[in-house]
From TrEMBL:
Record key words, sorted: Acyltransferase, Transferase
Molecular function via GO: acyltransferase activity, transferring groups other than amino-acyl groups
Xref: PANTHER family: ACETYL-COA C-ACYLTRANSFERASE, BLR7806 PROTEIN
Location of the Thiolase C-terminal domain: 257-379
Family statement drawn from the similarity comment of this UniProt entry: Belongs to the thiolase-like superfamily. Thiolase family.
InterPro entries assigned to the protein according to its UniProt record, in alphabetical order: Thiolase (IPR002155), Thiolase-like (IPR016039), Thiolase_C (IPR020617), Thiolase_CS (IPR020613), Thiolase_N (IPR020616)
Residues annotated as domain Thiolase N-terminal: 5-248
SUPFAM superfamilies linked: Thiolase-like
Pfam family for this entry, one: Thiolase_C
Species whose genome carries this gene: Nocardiopsis flavescens
Domain of life: Bacteria
Stated name of the protein: Acetyl-CoA C-acetyltransferase
Active site positions: 89 (acyl-thioester intermediate), 336 (proton acceptor), 366 (proton acceptor)
Length: 380
């Protein structure tokens, strides 16, 4: 089986839903990172065999195969096709998996994995509004027979996790505060500068609140009466895009590329769709077992902070060192532009391994339907 390498990973700053990036068309966000990736790597764009783009709310300006639209909007060759995929929050991490699997199968040599989401222009849930407005429901009879008519939502799933693992509000807020502290430190230290392609006059992630405090968080109302969750312990609604170039060993040599990392393991696991957010735990166990690694072998982990209970339960169940998990902050501080987050996390992971000299990195995230992708990489 052929090896798959990450040649480079580039992203926009992550903007807030009312920030400067909210007015940028999703196709132009995608075009920006695709063009930046081609320029940074020096690869001949006509040699790219596919562009795989994650996007969750594929409606309005994010409809009509955004991958193809973004590539053409970047002025890149018409001969290169594109496909847009939805695995909920893990959409662009799945794009990385599909790209790497194409290369590892030997059927492709150069594939771009990417992701875009403008949650300021296309609000979360826009793609399901038709069903709701017309009384069609989101689930059919088979689902109802299996799971009944109980609420299925990320919010309830996060609260159920709090109840299962015994996480109280104060612990969630302490985690959230640390996410902001780490992110602010990373911004001040310039750790993200090399991976960001500035756009619309923005060169830094907009969501970090270095002045937030536990006292400020304590003043927020819970999402529902009696719940542990508040907005402070949830990921931010965001805008962003990212792109990763995946290449075979033969393509690396042929095009004179310098890879940053090697793909070690690609795993995907399903779990309870009612809890929804717990799948990173079994998925990580599966990935580590297949890779022949232990959690102690992982130098850096990027796990999406959809809600604070997600990384907290993962750390507890896997026995991971908290210092190695989201060392530069996570989505609570930096934001979560849904379909783009997977490639944005990969950009952070690859760069942090090179900054610290670590060997193995692991990326995972919870996804709608109770799923999780896990990607294990090795720095080269």
């Amino acid at each position: 089986m052929a090896e798959a390498y990450i040649v480079d990973a580039v992203r926009t700053p992550v903007g807030t839903r009312k920030g400067a990036l909210a007015a940028v068309h999703p196709a132009d966000l995608g075009a920006h990172v695709l063009k930046a990736l081609v320029e940074r790597t020096g690869v001949d764009p006509s040699a790219v065999e596919d562009v795989i783009m994650g996007c969750v709310s594929q409606v309005g300006p994010q409809a009509l195969d955004l991958a193809r639209t973004a590539w053409l909007s970047a002025g890149l060759p018409e001969s290169v096709p594109g496909v847009t995929i939805d695995r909920q929050c893990g959409s662009s991490q799945q794009a990385v998996h599909f790209a790497a699997q194409g290369v590892m199968s030997g059927t492709q040599d150069l594939v771009v994995a990417s992701g875009v989401e403008n949650m300021g222009m296309v609000p979360m849930g826009s793609n399901v509004q038709y069903a709701l407005d017309n009384g069609l429901g989101l689930y059919g009879e088979g689902w109802a027979e299996r799971y009944g008519f109980q609420e299925i939502s990320q919010f309830r799933g996060a609260q159920l996790m709090c109840e299962k693992w015994g996480f109280k509000r104060d612990r969630l807020e302490e985690y959230a505060l640390e996410s902001h502290r780490r992110a602010a430190e990373a911004l001040d230290d310039g750790r993200f500068d090399s991976q960001i392609a500035p756009i619309a006059g923005v060169s830094r992630d907009e969501g970090v609140r270095p002045d937030t405090t536990l006292e400020k968080m304590a003043g927020l109302k819970p999402l529902r009466e009696g719940w542990e969750l508040t907005a402070a312990v949830a990921s931010q609604i965001s805008v962003g895009a990212g792109a990763v170039l995946i290449a075979s060993g033969a393509a690396v040599e042929r095009h004179g590329l310098t890879p940053l990392a090697r793909i070690v393991q690609l795993s995907l696991v399903g779990d309870d769709p009612v809890y929804m957010l717990t799948a990173p735990i079994p998925a990580t166990r599966t990935a580590l077992a297949k890779a022949g690694l232990g959690i102690g072998d992982i130098d850096v982990t990027e796990i999406n902070e959809a809600f604070a209970p997600v990384p907290l339960s993962w750390i507890e169940e896997l026995g991971a060192d908290p210092a190695t998990v989201n060392p530069n902050g996570g989505a609570i501080a930096l934001g979560h532009p849904l379909g783009a987050t997977g490639v944005i996390l990969m950009a952070k992971l690859v760069n942090e391994l090179h900054r610290t000299g670590g060997r193995y990195g692991l990326q995972t995230m919870c996804e709608g339907g109770g799923q999780a992708n896990v990607t294990v990489i090795e720095r080269v």
